[in-house]
Amino acid sequence: MKAIINGKIVLEGATVSGMTLLFDDKIQAFETSTAPANADTVIDAKGRYVLPGLVDMHIHGYLGEDASDGKAEGIRTMARGIAKNGVTSWLPTTMTVSYPELEAAFEAISQVKAESEKPGFDGAQIMGVNAEGPFINAARKGAQAGEHIKPCDPEFIDKHAGLIRVFTVAPEVKGNMAAIRRIHKEHPEILISMGHTNAIYDEAEKAVRAGVRHVTHLFNAQTGLHHRDPGVVGCALSENRLTTELIADTFHVNKALFKMVSELKKDKLVLITDCTRAGGMPDGEYSLGGQPIFVKGIECRLADGTIAGSVLRLNEAIRNVRQNVKRLSLHKIVRMASLNPAIAIGIDKAKGSIAVGKDADFCFADEDMNISRTILRGETIYNAEV
C-alpha cells in the first residue's frame, strides 16, 4: 500500500486538504491521518495539488513525433513526453492521410497501446485512437490534406472498431448522414464527432439525431454562430447531447470566450491540446499531415497562414482557463481535462477522477499548474525531483 500526504486533493466536487490518499494500482481509501500505519511507501505532496491523471483525447504529436507517422517508437516518445504534463490517458490522433498510412499508424498505436496496459510502462496509457478525418469537408479542411478526403466509410470503421474511440465527420457531405446512422447503430461505443464541416444549424441538429455526440475543436474549421443561422457552433453550445472540445491556448479561441463556453457547456466541455509534433520543441518548421507548418510562440500555421494545430500542453490549458474564468472552481476546470473527456470516450469507470476503486492515476501541480510528479496505476512515471 502507498500513501500521498500533505496534498490538496482535487476531487470531482471539491478540493480537500488534510486527507491521506491510500492506493496500490487502484485507489483504496481516504484517511484523516497524516501518518498512515499501513502504508509501505509515503509520498509527500508538499502542499501541491493532487489532480486526477489528465486525459488528452485529441493530440496529434509531441517532441518531434506524430501519431500519423506509423512509428511505434514515436508513439512511445509522445507517451513519455506528455506524462510530464500530467497526462495519464490519451488518444493518439491521426490526420487526413491515405488509408495505407492510417493502417500503418493504427498498427503502431495498437502495439504501444498493448505495452501501455502492462506494469512498468513509463508513459501515458493509450486508450484507443482518435481519427480526425478523412471523412471531412474539403471546404473546411484547415490543415488537413485535401487529396485524401473521403466520404464516410462504415466498412473502415467496422474494421478498426476495436481501436477507434472517436472519429470526426462532416455530416453535410453526401452519404455521410446515412453512414453516421449506421455506425451509431452498429458501434454505439464509438464517439462520433462533427468537425471540419460546413454544416448549417439544421444539418448539425439532424446529425445529432443521427448519432453525433461530440464537436471537434469548437469554433475552428466549422460554421460559426450567426443570428440567422447558428451553425455548428450554435448547435454545439445549445445541444445538451453534445460534448464539445476547446483548445484553450488563447490563440485558437479568444480567452474572452472561455467564461461563456464554460457556463453554457458545463460538464460537457472538454479541454484538448490538438498538439502537433512541434509541441515541446523550439520555434521553427515542422510538418503536419505531410504539409509544412511554421511555429512561432503559441502559433502554428501553414505557409498560407492557415492555423495548423497547436503546441499546447494540457496542464497549460487548465492554467489558461483558471486565469481567465476567475469564479470557476479549480475542481470544475480540472474536470474539463480529466473526467469530462473520460466520460466522452467511455473510460470513466477506471479513469478521470480520484475515487475509490478507480485506477491510481494522479499528478502533482503547483498554483501555476506546473507538474512535478505523475503516477499511473500506482507507479510514478514522472518525477521532476529525481
Indicate the structural class.
Answer: alpha/beta
**On the 0-100 scale, what is the average pLDDT?**
96
- Count of DSSP helices? 10
CATH architecture of the largest domain: Alpha-Beta Barrel
How many distinct folded domains?
2
- N-C termini distance: 22 Å
Apparent shape: globular
What is the CATH topology assignment of the largest domain?
A: TIM Barrel
The low-pLDDT segments are none
* Residue share in helix: 25-40%
Radius of gyration: 20 Å
Number of strands: 24
Descriptive key words:
386 residues; alpha/beta; Urease, subunit C, domain 1; TIM Barrel; 2 domains; six-stranded mixed beta sheet; 10 helices; 24 strands; globular
Describe this protein's structure.
By secondary structure, the chain is α/β, with parallel strands linked by helices. The protein has two domains: 67 residues, Urease, subunit C, domain 1 (Roll); 297 residues, Metal-dependent hydrolases (TIM Barrel), CATH 3.20.20.140. Strands 8, 11, 12, 13, 14, 15, 16, 17 and 18 form a nine-stranded parallel beta sheet that branches. Helix 1 packs across helix 2 and helix 5 packs across helix 6. The longest helix has 18 residues. The chain is globular. The two termini are 22 Å apart. The mean pLDDT is 96.
